[in-house]
Amino acid sequence: MRFRACIALLLFLSACATSTPPPSSRRTRSQRLANLQRAAALPWRDGGQCVVREASQPWPALVERCYQALDHDRIEFHDTAGRCSVASAGAAAVGVGFCVLVAPEIVVGAVIVLGVVVVAVAIKEALDAYELRHSYPEEAGTSRGTKVSSREAEAQRKPKLKPEPAEQDWQPPVPPVPVDRTGRASCEPVPVPHAGKDDLHNECADRFPPNRYPDNDVLVNGKRFDALQVGARVLWEIKTYQFDTYSEFLRDRVIEDQVEEFQEDRDIAAACGYSFVVGVSSAAHREALLRQDPSLKIVVTGCKR
Q: Where is the DUF6310 domain (predicted)?
């Protein structure tokens, strides 16, 4: 009998089998980062290049597109929860492995990785770049709640007992991300460079609403939105997925995740007096979202990938 309780398994399950955090905390970090971190625990034959390329997609879409790049000789999949044995025909067509991987959380014993997992080169580089980019002050406050700018923190740690003469009339710089008196992220819209490198997506976000801040996302209430509409208090989220090409099983998983995401985004926007609109590329994508939540505002942009 194969010795299953290997070190790699313990490391993998400790990262993936914990209880899913509440939606509000999951959405504070970007979908891209979450996907990279989840994929880092798996072995990839292509060095993780497919994962990095598709990391901005929903996790089920990433798995569908990159499943063949996994090192299948080092992974065993077990339907321990019994969810895949009764899965739809769409899931069965791609196998139990795919069905297990796209689950919101990995059940203990469902995925067994043989040997020690070394993070794929491309994934490690992407994670390192993300950490470096978000270490700068302009990214402070993107986690909803308590962060303040590094300049303010430095000033609080090292207060001057007596100001220099030349500094008596000097005013401290405005923090890159406005915060209110409690330290919480404010409702003031702040343009920040587009987080993703998907040029077609960014072009759509700039052109369609149209975006008040071209080439930028907008930070409101601690949340990045793809665009703030010109001349209106309307925040936009743009999706350019090739939804019409997805299998029925994958469509269901994507819609489930997106409706939850959009409901939270709408609440964040409404708390600051903004409307919230989602732009999708196809009528089929719009109809699927509205079937789940008719109260969402969804428009068809026609933007292509």
A: 180-303
Q: What is the rounded CA–CA span in Å between residue 219 and residue 227?
A: 9
The encoded tokens of residue 7 equal 């070190």
Per-residue pLDDT tens digits for 41-76: 999 999 999 998 888 888 888 988 899 899 988 988
Residue 55 DSSP one-character state: T
Tell whether 109 and 12 lie within a shared domain: yes
Range of the domain at 64: 7-129
pLDDT of 126 reads 83
| Helix pair angle (59-66, 31-39), 10° resolution | 40
The structural domain count of the chain equals: 2
- CA-CA distance, 273 to 271, in Å (whole number)? 6
pTM of the model: 0.55
Are residues 88 and 192 part of one domain?
Answer: no
Please state, in angstroms and rounded to a whole number, the distance separating the CA atoms of residues 96 and 304: 31
Task: Identify whether 210 is preceded by a cis peptide bond (ω within 30 of 0).
Answer: yes
Q: Is the pLDDT of residue 38 over 70?
A: yes
